[in-house]
UniProtKB/TrEMBL annotation, chains A, B, C, D:
This is ATP-dependent 6-phosphofructokinase. It is an enzyme of class 2 (transferase). GO terms for molecular function: 6-phosphofructokinase activity; AMP binding; ATP binding; fructose-6-phosphate binding; identical protein binding; metal ion binding; monosaccharide binding. GO terms for cellular component: 6-phosphofructokinase complex. Its EC number is 2.7.1.11. The gene is pfkA. Pathway: Carbohydrate degradation; glycolysis; D-glyceraldehyde 3-phosphate and glycerone phosphate from D-glucose: step 3/4. Allosterically activated by ADP and other diphosphonucleosides, and allosterically inhibited by phosphoenolpyruvate. Belongs to the phosphofructokinase type A (PFKA) family. ATP-dependent PFK group I subfamily. Prokaryotic clade 'B1' sub-subfamily. Catalyzes the phosphorylation of D-fructose 6-phosphate to fructose 1,6-bisphosphate by ATP, the first committing step of glycolysis. The keyword Kinase applies. Its cofactor is Mg(2+). It catalyses: beta-D-fructose 6-phosphate + ATP = beta-D-fructose 1,6-bisphosphate + ADP + H(+).
Amino acid sequence: MIKKIGVLTSGGDAPGMNAAVSAVIRYASSNKIEVFVIKDGYKGLINDWIEQADINYAQNIIALGGTAIGSARLPEFADIKVREKAVANLKKHAIEALVVIGGDGSYMGAQRLTEMGINCVGLPGTIDNDIVSSDYTIGFDTALNTIVQAIDKIRDTMQSHNRAAVIEVMGNQCGDLALYASIATGADVISTSESKLTEQEIVDQVTAIAKTGKRSVVVVVSEKMYPDVHALAEKVEASSGYVTRATVLGHIQRGGSPSAMDRHLAVTSAMFAVDQIIAGKGGLYIGLDGTKLVARDINSTLNMPRKDKTEETNKIRFLNAQFLK
Amino acid sequence: MIKKIGVLTSGGDAPGMNAAVSAVIRYASSNKIEVFVIKDGYKGLINDWIEQADINYAQNIIALGGTAIGSARLPEFADIKVREKAVANLKKHAIEALVVIGGDGSYMGAQRLTEMGINCVGLPGTIDNDIVSSDYTIGFDTALNTIVQAIDKIRDTMQSHNRAAVIEVMGNQCGDLALYASIATGADVISTSESKLTEQEIVDQVTAIAKTGKRSVVVVVSEKMYPDVHALAEKVEASSGYVTRATVLGHIQRGGSPSAMDRHLAVTSAMFAVDQIIAGKGGLYIGLDGTKLVARDINSTLNMPRKDKTEETNKIRFLNAQFLK
Amino acid sequence: MIKKIGVLTSGGDAPGMNAAVSAVIRYASSNKIEVFVIKDGYKGLINDWIEQADINYAQNIIALGGTAIGSARLPEFADIKVREKAVANLKKHAIEALVVIGGDGSYMGAQRLTEMGINCVGLPGTIDNDIVSSDYTIGFDTALNTIVQAIDKIRDTMQSHNRAAVIEVMGNQCGDLALYASIATGADVISTSESKLTEQEIVDQVTAIAKTGKRSVVVVVSEKMYPDVHALAEKVEASSGYVTRATVLGHIQRGGSPSAMDRHLAVTSAMFAVDQIIAGKGGLYIGLDGTKLVARDINSTLNMPRKDKTEETNKIRFLNAQFLK
Amino acid sequence: MIKKIGVLTSGGDAPGMNAAVSAVIRYASSNKIEVFVIKDGYKGLINDWIEQADINYAQNIIALGGTAIGSARLPEFADIKVREKAVANLKKHAIEALVVIGGDGSYMGAQRLTEMGINCVGLPGTIDNDIVSSDYTIGFDTALNTIVQAIDKIRDTMQSHNRAAVIEVMGNQCGDLALYASIATGADVISTSESKLTEQEIVDQVTAIAKTGKRSVVVVVSEKMYPDVHALAEKVEASSGYVTRATVLGHIQRGGSPSAMDRHLAVTSAMFAVDQIIAGKGGLYIGLDGTKLVARDINSTLNMPRKDKTEETNKIRFLNAQFLK
């Protein structure tokens, strides 16, 4: 039976990462396994920022946002010499396996470490919901609620003043934050990274809405799609007549105390990951499949195709545009 | 093609009911179907409290808690004469089909009305997550977040004062609110309607925790399981030594602006229900199956067995009790 | 005794405006005065968008964000001919007095209308807290909480990743939102419209913090002070070494359900305003002075000097910079 | 100049206590004073639970609910022998003065310690707003917002179902939480510890409202005023015809991340307290007087009369009862 494992968080922080770290520590401890936390992701492996986990600490971080054990990017981890240093540090502490919590940027490192003898099991931790091998990712639900609450507030002002708003949300090549937020708020115009509208299409749609006399308009767009959303808002204003402002939600989308379901996914998938490690497995990423957790070979997840959401997006556009006769 | 439909909410109010009503109105309108809202559930059918739906109204209620069109209990709807009055009122308005949003108490009415010529399609609207034919129900996620935030707050005070808390949550024969909330908050002792502890077991578990020196203890119990949770708290205090107070979360669990995922489920399942009605179907209840929506015969859903959660509950107990050596 | 009054909201919407409108309607009704709501501020006066208020409506809007009766800018209200039209419309409805809820942009209109025979009493409704004649304004507390919650979230991410954030908040020439938010969050660097730092000073302060090894830095700045906060963030990054991102909180600061104290101020000052009108007074603006409400001549409020906050700001800088040895 | 001070929290925990502790540590450190935290209030003084404060710790607790340094009751502190032990422990660490954060139960201890040579300065920390020498107390605003959000949620359900709710809130002999919450939510019936209604009066008022056809009723009562609020709800139901349920908000009112204004009061009053200590003063309690902080002799504060709120309460009753013709 395995005696010592490590846990780290990698890539962009996501609400629920702390709940996952907490559950790894608590569940492994319940199973008589010693747990070490690695600070600042793979960077901490290289620098030997490795500390024995404390059970009180594990208790106290469940509800906190961000990642209390730190995260960092480390492109040089692709270099085998760098990874050898990591493995040496792990062996020094007699750590035999790792739970890696992070987005798809952390997959390859987990796979390579497994190949070098350290069994790694990954948890999908990112607000972007861009991990194809899991229906939902840890952090998505919290970020989505933050976005929905922000859009609700902006709608208040738009409705008060007979205006239009262009709102840019995160997603990193995945339109789910934009799409789900649009469903939840009744956004009038939707442009996602997977079902993109041109600037002219956005301008035309808002102008068409203006003709129906609708009091307020909310346009939701994914990040990195238009050169300047403020300039886009000016174009919308010039054509539609609505006073129009752009808001880039930015970094408020990442932090915050995790939602109940993000904590639920974090805790249950963390236990499931530790179960894999106890079973002697590695090179796996945990995913949510319906209401079941599954463990997939990292290599197999890399080629999974992304679900096409064009039809769903168009259906929501049809729903939310009922004003357009 | 169908021309006029009605929508009503039935049973206990749940966050997201308004988002569902909104989506029924907006989606049916987009499909050139006229929508009527029936006030106060089946009671409004009998009393002809039926009004044409307004599209601005539909827009404005998406984010609101409760049910803006009212709900009520009507046991006498089991009487065919009462239902004939309902059908007569619907025919007066030329309403051919109904979307019914509510818990399993509304199933039978929907089935009976379908048999009498009014195609009914139901949406699972209840905070209790006690509808076996759907993985999650509309309102569960919001109520769960309300509970988790309340427990987080109570934990603050228990941790400040070295105390224990007994917290009673809703669930109506279904332990999911209690179980999920315990997972999300690291509750120390868990007793659900599906995996019940005796009062003595609760007292013993808290007393065992006290011996480990843990600073605070949270006990989460489902409603309707113990004659008096305040008396239970006294027993816990007498044995464990922790100053112990009980909190019955009560009606704060029902209201509030719906969470993003409750709105998502409400909106997508509402569209799916209208699609069934357009297809000429009735006697169906919509359920979430993984990430897919399914429409099941009401009769078939009545005999679906409840998932046994004993193993999962015990696993969470094992996780959360890592202090007990 | 006066028989009919109107109520309108003017200028930027602020949380609590609806609670104020609600209290005007309810309190005047309790005093047997008929209330009319004017839609879209002074614009509605000109266009006769005037409707009798409904008591159920008044009940239902207390907790809502924005202004349900609309607001708009109307620079041409400075023209006497335009105002004569407003007075004519008011006389048509036999409305003898007005409660005006809005920022200092609405003062002059209220004063002029009073001089033309319509007694106006104003309530300080703006998130900016820039009305010198009131310690706090309706909407400030809610906006401040929204900002503080946003900064807390951004701090989560900065702390997770060892980064710096530049956060721009509203305030419109008044630094209170920036200053209070900095106090509440422990912001490391503070630049307000009343105690401005140059870009170089900000860069230098963050660079000095970097040398102490502090994990995260939060810089809070008022709006309209730097040509481009994203460019400022780049300069901070270049000098300090922290990865640095700017976030412009923008319109999320205006909306949202009003906080308890914003509702309290809204309701109590609305009753106080109606009391002035009942007493036959006009040309007044209500202000909060400690825990007391006062009614001041509009003319006298125009020359009130703004409180100098330099000393207080410097004290907070001293407090929050304890890392700088 | 003073070199070492201590800080402790006493009595019931209140949101903002951590922000106050944080500011004491940070501000004193900025002033080259060493700070020690005393765990669990006066109990920690006796038991020598005294630790040097850490500046990172001070940073990280600003936004947390409860009191991270613990609190406890210690009636035996009235005994001089017990206090002598406290003074001996403080002298052992060379701690010359104390900041005491807590309600009026901590005043006497602070006064006695001052008389024994340890200058104590108190901060008003309690959710109850029952400290006459301060307009508002640290924690009141957060608790009030928690209550208002809870009542808003309960109103959702009452309005959905045509029901009445009896809601019991905290306050400990002070009606402010009940009164302010009633103002902010438009509660229909209000009974506070300072302006109490008999059970019969409550029943009669709700029954009168029922006759107007109002859809929902909310009754807000202070704690400890009726033997059993559930029995009271039954009486209300029997007379009025509304299905009526009681909710005791209980311990959810104490915890939670502090609001912006609670943190503001905590931080500014903490700095003010340290300033008093630096000036060599003791035996003082800090209070908020309008927007100014004042330091009053503890002895003088003990005899300050409580403000009579009967007139204000009656005015709110008049406002909120506009339905009663």
